[in-house]
Please model this.
Amino acid sequence: MIRLHHVPQSRSFRILWLLEELGLSFEVVEHSFFDKSLRGPDYLAISPAGRVPALEIDGRSLFESGAITQYLCETRSALQGTAAERPDWLEWLHYAETIAAHVANLTQQHVVLREDWMRSPTLMRLEAARLRKTLEVVERGLSDPFILPSGFSAVDIAVSYGAIIGQRFVRLDALPRVSAWLARLAERPAYRRALARDGLSQIYAKDFYPAPEPGHG
Ligand SMILES: N[C@@H](CCC(=O)N[C@@H](CS)C(=O)NCC(=O)O)C(=O)O
Model:
């Protein structure tokens, strides 16, 4: 049995969605950032930094969403684009983490750090601007209707995660192609099935977290 270690709304959603797209049967082990379940020895044996996602599959376990995505697509011969698109597929797969790093930093600043004195308004503004820049690259790079000219692939999943969560920090109004792409992805039956299995939100309480105006820190 394939077993996904998951926290709702986290990067493990990428793998939840990918497994649904691949039509694989799997179980979800839901964890929380707010208990110690990701820091226990059993979990650290699977994911040594105590992060999600981790996937138990084919008699072993794997961590890092990019590695898991590549492994699943290679071993199941699916959602990898064409051979000619291989360099682009790899580029986008790893670029997904460039986007996600800004989302993670903004989540840290706005959500995880609970007291105002812990936060840096400068960092919040900087990270929002840097996230917007990374999403502008997607706006320019999309080959309608998906990222790769050959059609939907796993990099649509990997990259869109950063935009789906990132829109809590950056308005997408100025990125019409990204907005249309997200709307298109949201129509996919596998995406809907993944969303239904994502679990209750643990992280974000608001739809949008504005960066503080300059002059407020
Ligand atoms: N590059 C890794 C990042 C994994 C990661 O940091 N996941 C976050 C959730 S989005 C996590 O598990 N955070 C828990 C922690 O930092 O303790 C991947 O793509 O899998």
